[in-house]
Amino acid sequence: MWVSAVRSAMFVPSRAAFLAPRASLFTTPPSIAQRVRFSSTNVPEEAEEQPHPTSAGPLPIRYPYFVSRVGVNGMNLPVYTDIRNARSRYLTNIRKVEGDVTALCRDLFEDFGWGDPFNKLNPNAELLVRTTQQAGSKMIVIRGNWSRDVKAWLEERGF
């Protein structure tokens, strides 16, 4: 039944249509196109717009920064431990930061209870080694082996 409906609705172009611009070769009259398109579905005449149901959970928080995941499956966070000076110096690298690096650094230090990282009077400010803000890969380097804590903190925030 469907095949016969399509065959009866087929449009065969005339010789003049071949000489016309190419776009007109594949156009069909609107009435035929509407019949063929909607022949298998029932569309109500007036579809009432209903509001989308909202979940009871809280809305996700938008941060001014983003830390993308890495790896084959995209499941790992780019937080690494760098060991130097014959295992006497540990550095934690947070790579692949997009957006505002200083906001990420401030939020990290506040949640860990270290205070403001950019205030030189703060005794914990020496934990922050450097932040790079080049156009490519932005990175934060922190003194100490904090990789597990930082990964848990990032996962807690939804990254």
TrEMBL record:
The keyword Protein transport does not apply. One of its GO terms (biological process) is translation. Its main location: mitochondrion. One of its GO terms (cellular component) is mitochondrial large ribosomal subunit. It is found in: Mitochondrion. It comes from the Eukaryota. InterPro entries: Ribosomal_mL49 (IPR007740). This is Large ribosomal subunit protein mL49. It comes from Malassezia japonica.
